[in-house]
Amino acid sequence: MNRQPISGASAGAGCGRGGAPLRALVLGALLVLVTACGGGDSDKDGDGKGNKDGGKVGNAASQAVVTIVPKDGADSVATSGALKVTAAKGKLTTVTVQDDKGAPIEGKLAADGASWQPLQHLAGSTKYKVHAVAKDEDGRESAKDTSFTTLVPKNTFIGQYSPEDGSTVGVGMPVSINFTRGITDPGAVERAIKVTAEPSVPVEGHWFGNDRLDFRPEKYWAAGTKVTVKLNLDGVEGRPGVYGKQSKTVKFTVGRSQVSTVDAKAHRMKVVRDGKQIKNVPITAGAPSTTTYNGQMVISEKYKVTRMNGATVGFGGEYDIKDVPHAMRLSNSGTFIHGNYWASSGTFGSANVSHGCVGLRDARGAGDSSTPAAWFFDSSIVGDVVIVKNSKDKQISPENGLNGWNMSWAEWTK
Fold this sequence. Notes:
The protein has helices at 7-42, 186-191, 372-379, 409-413, and strands spanning 65-69, 84-88, 91-99, 107-109, 115-118, 127-135, 141-149, 155-157, 159-162, 168-169, 175-179, 193-198, 204-208, 212-216, 226-232, 237-239, 242-244, 247-254, 258-263, 268-273, 276-282, 295-298, 301-309, 320-329, 336-340, 358-361, 385-389. It has four helices and 27 strands. Pathway: Cell wall biogenesis; peptidoglycan biosynthesis.
């Protein structure tokens, strides 16, 4: 019997037995391909752990930690030594401190960026805001904002200063500040006072006792100099528990230069203005028993007419003149250069008869503008220098009046 194969069944059977291995091979290849692609997606960072930067995540928080002392909301904070900003695991990049009026407080950032401290004391009874920013080693920033309020002082002091704001003075005028309380921390107080000059010249302070601080340059001011005094005493602890309460700027101008030299032996006074002698005036100085101090003295006060009573300066009842004309103070102890109407005109230029003052011929009542005393009074301003020489007395003490010029620069600055 001739048998013919059934092409449909035979093809189907043949196709079934030979197709299975091929499909497996194709599926396997696809699986390998999919697995390879999937494996690349799951290890984007190429370190076998799923992070290309070795586990560092770009949006992670900064590691830097900013600390501000005193804590946020603190009150009764000390005006010195309390404020400090630090950074751990990073470096400070910005620190700003402002008072409640928006005025900034200058500070110093440590070279390593780890800390910041103010360069000045803080004011009392004042609220401060602090803003600080630090960066970690990857440049991520961490910021902190706080506020605090300083203590309210129970005991205070101020500085009574001369010359006055806006005044024009002579070349010998120092800045003199008398404090209403004795100072036991002179360094803190002196650092809070800044005296600058234009044109610029070094200006240094010197303490007379614990309640007076004077400032001057090495030599007399140059004519035309403009001087600025900044009293930043608010919050300075001048003595334990006693704080300054003054914040003020004072400005004055140095006028023309006038230096007058009294020769007590020759009984004459030469007046030199801007380097040129303009007058040679006959005078009378202190009598042999009441001589006039030698030295550089500065006019500190002017009175067209004043009373002079010997009892106030240790001379008992030797004199009491109620109308001394054209008087200008040279010392705290009572030395004046003034008009004299009671001595004969021949006394001036020939004899020394006063109780220690320098006298010039004058008229009673200060009404005669032609007298030497009137001329000198009208030609002088506070801060002008009067030098006395050849008197048989000692040199005046630097603290006796505004007379620190009698100290050398080395003595003044030590």
